[in-house]
Prior knowledge:
With 137 residues, this protein is an all-alpha fold. The protein has a domain at 18-74: Arc Repressor Mutant, subunit A (Orthogonal Bundle), CATH 1.10.10. Helices cover 62% and strands 0% of the residues. It has four helices and no strands. α2 crosses α3. It is rod-shaped and about 100 Å long. It starts with 17 loop residues before the first helix and ends in a 19-residue tail after the last helix.
Amino acid sequence: ILLDKDGKRKHTRPTFSGQQIFALEKTFEQTKYLAGPERARLAYSLGMTESQVKVWFQNRRTKWRKKHAAEMATAKKKQDSETERLKGSSENEEEDDDYNKPLDPNSDDEKITQLLKKHKPGSGGLLLHPPEGEASV
C-alpha cells in the first residue's frame, strides 16, 4: 500500500497479466457489454474485482468507438472523393465528346482555342485533319 505525503492511501493503477488481457479481449470481441452475473463470473475466473472488469470494459468500449469513428470517417472521405471524381468525369463527358470529334477545317477558330484550353497537352492529343489534298506530317 502506497501513501501520499499526507499519509492517505494512494491509488495505484492495477496491472493485468497477459492472460487476463487476452481473456478480456476475447470476451469483448463476443460482447461489448457484460451483465452483472457475467461480469462477476469473468472477474472471479480471472482473479479480478468486478469493478476492475467493469472499468476495463468501459475503457475498451471508448477505445473501440474512437477507432470505429476514425474508420468510418476515412471510409466516408474515400467515398466522397470517389463520388466527386465520378461526378466530375460525367460533367466533362459532353466536353470530351466535342474534344474527340475530328475538327472541321472550316470550323470557328474560337471553338478550337476553347477546346485546347480545356484539355492538357499530351492527354491523348487533338487530331487535326489537314485540308484536302495536303499530306499529313
